[in-house]
């Protein structure tokens, strides 16, 4: 397997990766703004920008790598690790699973907007090429949702967490 991440010169998916990389700070800034303004994501209000952004730069890099090398096992595995780490950190920061899903919802929305803007700038790409990059983008984000959910469930169902939750339940039950 080659470690080259440039993709085929002139490939639509490689061009989208380049387009997104040039707008990385814009995407991350918009994401932070949306997450902070989402009333249903309570823990985001108390996090500093670095803690809020967390693994977003690595996730963004994995997405661009996946676009360039959509069949690359290395980028898929790295994306899996980044998503799981993001989920574990969010758990420790007091997030509920639904709040992490809302963060990913905002990321998806922003990326779809940029994908459409990219398509408008490249009308000659054609429908098949646009569907191809859309499929890669959505598959990447869907895998993130699955990986984050699996990480949350693994933590939630761990013996240590089960004991902690049982104690909380028993404490609440004894007060009634």
3D architecture notes:
The protein contains eight helices and no strands. The protein is mainly α and 176 residues long. It has one domain (12-175): Globin-like (Orthogonal Bundle). The longest helix is centred in the C-terminal third of the chain and has 31 residues, at 126-156. The termini are far apart.
Topology (elements, then pairings):
Layout: H1 12-22, H2 24-37, H3 49-53, H4 56-68, H5 73-92, H6 97-121, H7 126-156, H8 159-175
CATH topology: Globin-like
Total beta-strand segments: 0
* Uncertain residue segments: 1-9
Number of helices: 8
Which structural class matches the secondary elements?
A: mainly alpha
- What is the CA-based Rg, rounded? 19 Å
**What's the mean pLDDT score?**
82
Largest sheet: none
CATH class: Mainly Alpha
Strand content: under 5%
Order of helices and strands: HHHHHHHH
Question: What is the end-to-end distance?
Answer: 61 Å
Gross geometry: elongated
CATH superfamily: Histidine kinase N-terminal domain
Residue share in helices? Answer: over 70%
Structural domain tally: 1
CATH architectural type? Orthogonal Bundle
């Amino acid at each position: 397997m080659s470690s080259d991440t440039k993709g085929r010169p002139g490939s639509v998916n490689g061009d989208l990766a380049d387009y997104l990389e040039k707008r990385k700070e814009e995407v991350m800034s918009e994401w932070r703004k949306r997450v902070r303004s989402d009333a249903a994501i309570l823990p985001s209000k108390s996090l500093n920008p670095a803690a809020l952004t967390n693994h977003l730069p690595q996730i963004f890099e994995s997405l661009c790598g996946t676009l360039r090398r959509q069949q690359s096992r290395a980028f898929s595995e790295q994306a899996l690790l980044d998503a799981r780490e993001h989920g574990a950190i969010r758990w420790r920061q007091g997030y509920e699973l639904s709040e992490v899903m809302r963060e990913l919802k905002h990321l998806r929305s922003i990326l779809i907007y940029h994908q459409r803007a990219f398509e408008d700038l490249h009308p000659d790409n054609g429908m098949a090429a646009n569907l191809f990059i859309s499929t890669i983008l959505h598959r990447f984000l869907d895998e993130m949702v699955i990986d984050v959910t699996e990480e949350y469930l693994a933590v939630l169902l761990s013996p240590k967490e089960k004991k902690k939750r049982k104690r909380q339940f028993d404490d609440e039950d004894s007060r009634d």
